């Protein structure tokens, strides 16, 4: 299967629904072959942008380019994109084969070519032999694959995903997202993926766009977003976050000396001026001890998760969440007196808002 | 064929040129669809010496055909302007050229259609209507039809009532009414009857709804079947049956009680007839509300220490209030619009619908008819608007939610027994009504000579078959058109956003609120003269059927579309299918059931129509209902009931066919608030 991946350019796109401003002057460039995820809470505009790229909505302002072509005013069936829907949208009155062959039939391809293409793509998604079934007779995961096959068989320039895994249970979701990512990389196809599940976004994306109320909060790789969030919103949305008051004592060439609680840490940061600062500390980067010289605290809540234990510890800096994967000292009980130790690589001073 | 970029443009442009050159533009002496032989030469081309502006049409045709060879992008603005100019031109030109007895001819209609296509292309490409050309054109056509066949007749009535020889005079309304001394009596009668019948029908409907939904007895199936009977009954059959039972020679009054009285004529008989006819409508409306009550609410009440009686009074009944109010307002409209029953059994009790009829048929006073029609329309519209907007159903595009799971609370025992007893009694009474209708066709002269005879049926076979065939053929022709137009409008309104969507939706449902009599006189006044000459043709009957019954198709369509995930259509479109293909391959197969039920109900309503068509039947195109009416008015009940029985059997067969084909749920869905006249 030859695929020509294309870039996607979204330029100053705005979308209004009556009085509501769903998308506010968003600009994005997606590289060919990249899987870009639009991530954010409900109502942030991510689905709207996806639908604008698909042509199911028309932008109030701005333009959309797929490859070199300006597709802003083109209807969906004239664009070279296909979409995977949250509800799969498999045609209930057609068999699996007819579902996958639908687009090819619309384009009036010869019968032999249709049969070959369908067979090829069914193999690709691992659904060979299911062609005669009816969609209602398939499980969620199988329906998902058929929907994927149907989207791929037309060799689209861009593949769009609208929260495709929300209707699956947790284990299946993990497996399917990996399969989707593998397939996307293998075919080298440009993909735009919408989800509100930040773990999913981190797991499969080349880059993530975090959106808030119609605007872009931050664009970056998963690593950048997790470890260097641009603002509090992104820090809170991705992963768990503790926001703690600290003070920069001195700064030299990309490093700062930070005082947090009773601890002094040398932390990599681009902030230069000394003074009070809010730091982000991820729960898995804080060590919890039952003795020692760290920040003192009392355990308020304990949740045992099997692979880790979640603690909420009340301290002088406020309540702090800690995730302990080590559990060397067993699981500490509620009410225990503990000492918290911060690790240098886990503390990130946030830029001022 | 790569030279021709857009074959559609070429075809349309060529079509326009051909129409302009070959098809008669105006109709002199003939009717709109059938020009006379001499009229064949009146093509637009031929008329250019009289009206040079016709050349513009030729220019548009050539230009559009030329665009077929050019890049797609260029044609947008031009298309919008060209199409709009073309349409406007055609209207204006025909008006100018069309002095009585000229009228629109087929050429004008065809060129208008093509210009609309051009306009549709332009609108969709320029992004004004965010969809492809098919949807844009559908919207324009639907809009045109509605303006032409719903608004224009209403306008014609208005014009008739305020225009006299000296021009527009609004005070004409007051003058006309002053000349008509019975006005307040007639209005009072109509309103009083409507309110009374609404109360009784709604009450009976409530009783039936509760019994059918909540009783544990097995009679509920029978009750449901009874709810269908009056739908398939021609409107005055119930009136006739009441005369047969309670009239001068009535079975109950004369044979059983030995009375000789005409007391049943007038208000008592009319109220009884209307209640019998409309209670099933109320039943259907209330019953859907009953079934959608969340059982959890009643269960919560029970756990909060309330017994079953208390729960019924304080929880169940209040929850039913919207349904009851809805039914009430709907039956008011039905009663006001009813024509068949008042004509047969109204006696001296004059109501607006019959008075309008007599104004035209007896007094030849069109102005009076128009004025009374406006009054009747005002009442019906008020009730309709109240029901739509005050009761909160802002748009019928509200998704019907899934019925709640869980079993509803059974009724208190005493109540249940009471309800069932009443239902059985009422069903028995209804059965008697129908039995008398059927047997009326088999006796010589009811009440006077009760010997069994087939004479009436023989007479029917000999003389009545023409009208029957006409009725069935016209109904069969109009049913698919009605269903198609209704479902198309439902699809446009539910799935697309465009300027004027709300207006389209409102206007298309309007024909449900307009009483049949008003539509009838509207059609007479609008289409009796240029620019649209349609009276005396089959076309006007078919059109009347279509636009009277369109709400049935729309309701079916809306309900069915609400069940389909919109993502299916979006998926189809992202898989390269156009909107037209999507409708054909995805939407239609999935709403098959709604289509079938729309077809059957359109057919049934067309066969039983009387109030709208009583004015527009002609010697050449007679309808069965009119024939039955004539026979009944002349007292020939034998023939009338025999004919009615035949109609009932035919329609029962049609509905039974649909039931078996499509299943029960959809069947009931098409009946709600359907209107019976």
Please provide a written account of the structure.
- The complex is a heterodimer of chains A (353) and B (677).
- Helices cover 24% and strands 36% of the residues of chain A.
- Chain A is an alpha+beta fold and 353 residues long.
- Chain A has two domains: 8-236, Rossmann fold; 240-349, OB fold (Dihydrolipoamide Acetyltransferase, E2P), CATH 2.40.50.
- In chain A, strand 4 (61-66) and strand 5 (69-70) form a beta hairpin.
- In chain A, helix 2 crosses helix 3 and helix 2 packs parallel to helix 4 (140-152).
- The longest helix of chain A is centred in the middle third of the chain and has 18 residues, at 170-187.
- Chain A is elongated and about 75 Å long.
- With 677 residues, chain B is mostly helical.
- Chain B contains 27 helices and eight strands.
- A two-stranded antiparallel ribbon of chain B has the order 1-2. Chain B has a two-stranded antiparallel sheet with strand order 3-4.
- In chain B, helix 5 (133-162) packs across helix 19 (501-513).
- Chains A and B meet through strand 6 and helix 2 of A and helix 22 and helix 23 of B.
**Number of E strands of chain B:** 8
Question: Can you tell me the CATH architecture of the largest domain in chain A?
Answer: 3-Layer(aba) Sandwich
The low-confidence runs of chain A, each spanning 5 or more residues with pLDDT under 50, are none
Strand arrangement within the widest β-sheet of chain A reads 6-7-8-3-9-10
Question: Helical segment tally of chain A?
Answer: 8
How many angstroms does the end-to-end distance of chain B come to?
A: 54 Å
Largest interface: A-B, 24 and 21 residues
CATH superfamily of the largest domain in chain A: P-loop containing nucleotide triphosphate hydrolases
Q: What is the CATH topology classification name of the largest domain in chain A?
A: Rossmann fold
Radius of gyration of chain B from CA coordinates: 27 Å
Supply the number of structural domains of chain A.
2
Spell out the helices and strands of chain A N to C.
EEEHEEEHHHEHEHEEHHEEEEEEEEEE
Spatial order of strands in the largest sheet of chain B? 1-2
* Proportion of helical residues of chain B: 55-70%
């Amino acid at each position: 299967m030859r695929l020509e991946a294309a870039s996607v350019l979204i330029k100053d796109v705005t979308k209004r629904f009556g009085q509501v401003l769903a998308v506010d002057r968003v600009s994005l460039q997606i590289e060919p072959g990249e899987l870009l995820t639009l991530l954010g809470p409900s109502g942030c505009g991510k689905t709207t942008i996806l639908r604008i790229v698909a042509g199911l909505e028309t932008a109030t302002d701005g333009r959309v380019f797929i490859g070199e072509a300006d597709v802003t005013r083109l209807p969906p069936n004239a664009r070279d994109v296909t979409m995977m829907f949250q509800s799969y949208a498999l045609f209930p009155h057609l068999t699996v084969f007819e579902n996958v062959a639908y687009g090819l039939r619309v384009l009036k391809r010869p019968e032999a070519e249709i049969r070959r293409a369908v067979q090829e793509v069914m193999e690709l998604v691992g659904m060979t032999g299911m062609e005669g079934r009816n969609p209602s007779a398939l499980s969620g995961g199988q329906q998902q694959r058929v929907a994927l096959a149907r989207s791929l068989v037309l060799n689209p320039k861009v593949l769009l995903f609208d929260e495709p895994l929300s209707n699956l249970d947790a284990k299946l979701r993990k497996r399917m997202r990996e399969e989707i990512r593998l397939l996307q990389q293998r075919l080298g196809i440009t993909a735009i993926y919408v989800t509100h599940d930040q773990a999913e976004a981190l797991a499969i994306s080349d880059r993530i766009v975090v959106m808030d109320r119609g605007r872009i909060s931050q664009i970056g790789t998963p690593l950048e977003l997790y470890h260097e969030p641009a603002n509090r919103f992104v820090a809170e949305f991705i992963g768990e976050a503790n926001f703690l008051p600290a003070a920069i004592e001195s700064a030299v060439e990309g490093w700062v000396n930070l005082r947090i609680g009773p601890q002094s840490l040398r932390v990599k940061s681009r902030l230069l001026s000394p003074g009070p600062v809010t730091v982000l500390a991820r729960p898995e980067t804080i060590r919890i001890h039952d003795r020692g010289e760290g920040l003192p605290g009392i355990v308020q809540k304990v949740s045992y998760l099997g692979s880790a234990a979640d603690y909420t510890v009340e301290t002088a800096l406020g309540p702090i969440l800690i995730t302990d994967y080590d559990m060397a000292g067993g699981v500490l009980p509620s009410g225990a007196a503990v000492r918290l130790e911060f690790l240098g690589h886990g503390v990130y001073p946030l830029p001022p808002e | 064929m790569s030279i021709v970029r857009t074959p559609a443009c070429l075809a349309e442009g060529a079509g326009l040129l051909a129409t302009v050159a070959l098809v008669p533009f105006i109709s002199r002496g003939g009717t709109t669809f059938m020009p006379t032989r001499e009229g064949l030469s009146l093509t637009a081309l031929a008329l250019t010496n009289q009206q040079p502006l016709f050349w513009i049409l030729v220019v548009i045709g050539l230009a559009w055909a030329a665009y077929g060879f050019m890049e797609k992008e260029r044609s947008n603005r031009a298309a919008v302007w060209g199409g709009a100019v073309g349409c406007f031109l055609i209207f204006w030109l025909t008006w100018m050229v069309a002095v009585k007895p000229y009228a629109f001819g087929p050429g004008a209609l065809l060129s208008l259609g093509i210009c609309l296509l051009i306009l549709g292309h332009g609108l969709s490409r320029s992004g004004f209507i965010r969809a492809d050309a098919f949807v844009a054109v559908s919207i324009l056509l639907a809009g045109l039809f509605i303006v032409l066949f719903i608004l224009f007749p209403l306008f014609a009535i208005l014009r008739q009532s305020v225009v006299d020889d000296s021009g527009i005079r609004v005070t004409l309304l007051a003058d006309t009414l002053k000349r008509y001394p019975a006005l307040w009596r007639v209005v009072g009668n109509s309103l009083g009857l409507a309110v009374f019948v609404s109360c009784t029908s709604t009450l009976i409907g409530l009783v039936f709804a509760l019994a059918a939904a909540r009783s544990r007895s097995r009679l509920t199936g029978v009750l449901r079947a009874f709810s269908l009977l009056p739908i398939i009954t021609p409107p005055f059959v119930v009136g006739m049956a009441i005369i047969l039972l309670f009239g001068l020679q009535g079975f109950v009054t004369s044979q059983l009680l030995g009375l000789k009285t005409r007391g049943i004529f007038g208000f008592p008989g009319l109220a009884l007839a209307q209640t019998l006819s409309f209670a099933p409508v109320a039943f259907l409306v209330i019953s859907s509300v009953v079934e959608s009550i969340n059982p959890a609410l009643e269960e919560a009440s029970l756990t909060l220490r309330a017994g079953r009686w208390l729960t019924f009074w304080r929880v169940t009944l209040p929850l039913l209030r919207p349904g009851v109010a809805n039914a009430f307002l709907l039956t008011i409209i039905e009663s006001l619009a009813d024509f068949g029953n008042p004509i047969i059994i109204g006696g001296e009790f004059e109501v607006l619908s019959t008075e309008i009829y007599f104004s035209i048929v007896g007094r030849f006073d069109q102005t009076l008819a128009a004025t009374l029609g406006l009054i009747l329309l005002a009442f019906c519209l008020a009730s309709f608007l109240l029901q739509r907007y005050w009761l909160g159903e802002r748009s019928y595009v509200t998704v019907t939610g899934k019925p709640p799971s869980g079993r509803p609370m059974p009724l208190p025992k005493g109540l249940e027994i009471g309800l069932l007893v009443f239902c059985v009694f009422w069903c028995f009474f209804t059965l008697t009504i129908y039995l008398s209708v059927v047997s009326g066709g088999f006796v010589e002269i009811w009440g006077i000579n009760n010997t069994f005879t087939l004479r009436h049926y023989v007479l029917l076979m000999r003389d009545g078959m023409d009208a029957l065939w006409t009725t069935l053929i016209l109904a069969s022709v109009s049913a698919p058109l009605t269903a198609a137009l209704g479902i198309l409008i439902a699809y446009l309104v539910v799935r697309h956003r465009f300027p004027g969507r709300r207006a389209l939706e409102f206007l298309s449902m309007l024909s449900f609120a307009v009483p049949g009599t008003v539509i009838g006189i509207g059609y007479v006044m609008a289409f009796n003269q240029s620019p649209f000459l349609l009276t005396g043709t089959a076309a006007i009957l078919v059109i009347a059927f279509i636009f009277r019954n369109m709400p049935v198709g729309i309701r079916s369509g809306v309900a069915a579309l609400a069940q389909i995930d919109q993502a299916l259509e979006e998926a189809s479109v992202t898989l390269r299918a156009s909107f037209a293909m999507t409708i054909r391959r995805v939407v239609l197969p999935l709403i098959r059931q709604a289509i079938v039920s729309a077809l059957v109900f359109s057919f049934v309503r067309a066969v039983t129509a009387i109030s709208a068509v009583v004015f527009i039947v002609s010697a050449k195109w007679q309808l069965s209902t009119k024939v039955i009416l004539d026979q009944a008015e002349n007292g020939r009940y034998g023939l009338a009931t025999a004919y009615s029985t035949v109609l009932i059997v035919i329609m029962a067969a049609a509905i039974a066919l649909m039931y078996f084909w499509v299943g029960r749920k959809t069947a009931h869905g098409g009946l709600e608030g359907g209107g019976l006249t």
